[in-house]
User: Fold this.
Amino acid sequence: MKMLSVLASATALALGMAQAIAQDCKSPVPDSALVKKGTLLMSVNPTLPPMQFVDQNGQLKGMRVELGGMIAKRLCLKPEYVRIEFSAMIPGLQAGRWDVINTGIFYTEERAKLMNMLQYEDQAISISTTKGNPLKISKPEDLSGKSIGVEIGGFEERKARELDKALTDKGMKGMTIRTFENFAMAYQSLRAGQVEVALSIDSTAAEYQKRGEFDRVLHGLFPTPVALATKNKALADAMAKALNDMKADGSFQKLFDQYGVKPIDGEIVVRGPAG
Amino acid sequence: MAQGWNWSGFFDYLTNSYILGGAVTTLWLTLAAIVGGLVLGCALALARLSSFRWLSAPAHFYIWVFRGTPLLVQLIIIYTGLPQLGLRLSVVESALAGLILNEAAYLAEIVRGGILGVPAGQTNAARAVGFSGAQAMRYIVMPQALRLIVPALGNSVNGLLKTTSITSVISMEELLRRTQVLIQEKFMVLELFIVAATYYLLMTTAWDFVQRRIERHFGRAYSTTVSTPKPDTVLEQR
Assistant:
């Protein structure tokens, strides 16, 4: 019993402290705009180093994870991440499972019809091979007849299919597209020789090349900004303000420089179904 | 954003040939895995029941390993791990190998249970009238064991039909993976997955019918609907 009362008072103390912190900082986001009170719940698929990944201790790391934390701090909310495969993200956002998709989702007009999107980072598509580029790939046409591994359900998969179509339209042999739950599995398959090339984003392909495991043989394909996405408009507006404040005080640029990633030019705006 | 249930979307996907192709893949994967699993499983069951330790110990070990680890882990090891040792199977081969090797371990235990379920007196009697060990197994034990095996076997086929969906992780394009591929098109999550569920249900239901027929076949001797001669007529015939 004594143990229990100690525990209870400790919990009360912790709660009190949490409340004290919350009181110091009033969130501009109403509770009704959030899935979980006082928390910014974000979904991430941590298989894209150095943007989003898990370290040896299972801790979430990476530029986008840090960015999410910085935004949450400015909104006086506690950042919390849900780790999940990309294919579940848009349905999950629509179903109210999390507040924000913070996994570097590529901006497309169709997606902006489904949810509020805040473009913030310039990305593009890369092609990786095993070390030494054994198939001597130097242009998209060299992908003809190759097997390609890609994450299912995203921009990357769609671009893989576009590359394939571009080849067959030219009368060349298409690619064999293999879809995996995430990029980690796609690269694992590349290492195992189950696919000949893997398609991912520039930053990740560059990181793997730096680690010396894979060569980035093509990059800068389909340059497109990536975005943060929300279902709630008020939350999106508050996040846009936080991001623009970060741009103004230089913390935004500093974070991007640290990872060698290019932020989008100009002000961050919300594009969504309403606007 | 799509709101509410969309019937026309549901029917579009229900008649979608890409999804149907996925269901066909699921079906043949199941059939191949059950046939392969049964052949290997029977061999394992007989080996495990053998009085030779050099036969029973490896079989026991095999069953221990494959029943003791998840199929998901086995598939990933086969697909992305074995190439490290120089053995590279294609996606289809990896999926089949994983399903067959895993299923065989379970089926071996089912077959073994069926064989042990036949009273030892049956074998003894067969041997007493001059049957060899193999003949006793083939003509006396197996027909009776099959009757015991079939219900559990049916359960396995039903389970296997659904388990094939796990092969999607190694990019096998079966029913689930094809459903996932189409999700991003319109985000009709509920409609698409209900379509997939419908296909799985259709296939498991069709199997139920087949299973019932097989059970009836092997249960003939015990069926009450088959007219058996009355004891007194048997006596009169003598």
Remarks:
- Residues 7-237 of chain B form a domain with the MetI-like fold fold (CATH 1.10.3720.10).
